[in-house]
UniProtKB/TrEMBL annotation:
GO terms for biological process: L-serine biosynthetic process; pyridoxine biosynthetic process. This is Phosphoserine aminotransferase. Pyridoxal 5'-phosphate binds at residues 101, 151, 171, 194, 236-237. Residues 4-347 form the Aminotransferase class V domain. It comes from Methylotenera mobilis (strain JLW8 / ATCC BAA-1282 / DSM 17540). It comes from the Bacteria. Binds 1 pyridoxal phosphate per subunit. Homodimer. GO terms for cellular component: cytoplasm.
Length: 358
């Protein structure tokens, strides 16, 4: 049987040991006689899962004690509205647009107050992060919003600007846990789970405690970070199974040696693919070298009339979901933590074959 490698941008590949563990525990979690999907979210079984999941995430990211970890619903797109509800409260916020998702964040936030786009690379086709020196920051902004890895465009931040006392709010959906980060440099970190953490539907928010008192009085309780933090993310029924799978992923990551260890694997995988793309004129990647994403690698065939043939041949080899996002076309290989290096090796081998044949 052909080995399948799933390059989907999300919902994305999960570690095989995680899926096997979930399979083994599907009908009976730890002798409880229940599936996790059947448990009361307030029962001792699930509250123990939630507590361990949070503890393991804190360990992986070295989350300081003055930050709350929330397990919410609606994915990262819901946070586009929830963030200004919790932080804007009559003020203005700065946003940087480096790809399709940060552009969407601006569009969604506009309904809640004054949103200033202080830097954008849209005119250049979203091929880089604008130099920090060009950002027109407002020292009185309620927050500065960035997307540190653009899934569609394949653009990743290689540092952070000096925002002074303005809290940085970062959408890290597609590269969280792929490298060490200094959580203390951010006011808020958030991300949908379906790329590097678990199944769709879960969103993780890490928020500094001093930012929990800024919500508009019109913020519904279910969207109020302070209310959720005071209720252990359970003012309503949380996405219990998504939290459980995330917990298994966190355990798997710790077994790999944590984010520092997985970063080295991610660098190796990304270099393997980029080095081949750069060695030929047959394939093209236009992203600035210092902003190339390690997780999402878009590329184009110089002769785009071959796109369908490339995808058909890839599928026959077990290399799935390589078609680029409909907004940009071309191809895209998403090589998250769970993608083994053998998958990238198989992709490069196929790309070499296809080039020789055409």
């Amino acid at each position: 049987m052909t080995t399948i490698y799933n390059f989907s941008a999300g919902p994305a590949v999960l570690p095989k040991p995680v899926l096997e563990r979930a399979q083994a525990e599907m009908l009976d979690w730890h002798g409880s006689g229940m599936s996790v999907m059947e448990m009361s979210h307030r029962g001792k079984e699930f509250t123990s899962i939630l507590a361990k999941t949070e503890a393991d995430l804190r360990k992986l990211l070295d989350v300081p004690n003055n930050y709350k970890v929330l397990f919410l619903q609606g994915g990262a797109i819901a946070e586009n509205a929830i963030i200004p509800m919790n932080l804007l409260n009559g003020g203005a916020a700065d946003y940087v647009v480096t790809g399709s998702w940060s552009k969407r964040s601006v569009e969604d936030a506009n309904a809640y107050g004054k949103i200033n786009v202080v830097a954008s690379s849209e005119a250049d086709g979203f091929t880089h992060v604008p130099a920090f020196s060009t950002w027109k920051l407002n020292k009185d902004a309620a927050y500065l919003h960035i997307c540190t890895n653009e899934t569609i465009n394949g653009v990743e931040f290689d540092g952070l600007p000096d925002a002074g006392d303005v809290p940085i709010v970062a959408d890290m959906s597609s590269h969280i846990l792929s490298r060490p980060i200094d959580v203390s440099k951010y006011g808020v970190i958030y991300g949908g789970a379906q790329k590097n953490i678990g199944p769709a539907g879960l969103c993780i928010v890490i928020v500094r405690e001093d930012l929990l008192d800024r919500a508009s009085p019109l913020t519904p309780a279910v969207f109020n970070w302070k209310t959720q933090s005071e209720n252990q993310s359970m003012i309503n029924t949380p996405p219990t199974y998504g939290i459980y799978i995330a917990g298994l992923v966190f355990e798997w990551l710790l077994e790999q040696g944590g984010v520092s260890a997985i970063e080295q694997v991610n660098i190796q995988k990304a270099n393997l693919l980029y080095d081949y793309i750069d060695s030929t004129d047959f394939y093209i990647n236009n992203i600035a070298l210092h902003n190339r994403s390690r997780m999402n690698i878009p590329f184009f065939l110089a002769d785009e009339s071959l796109n369908d043939a490339f995808l058909k041949g890839a599928e026959a080899k077990g290399l799935l979901q390589l078609k680029g996002h409909r907004m940009v076309g071309g191809m895209r290989a998403s090589i998250y933590n769970a993608m083994p290096i053998e998958g990238v090796q198989a992709l490069v081998s196929y790309m070499q074959e296809f080039e020789k044949a055409h």
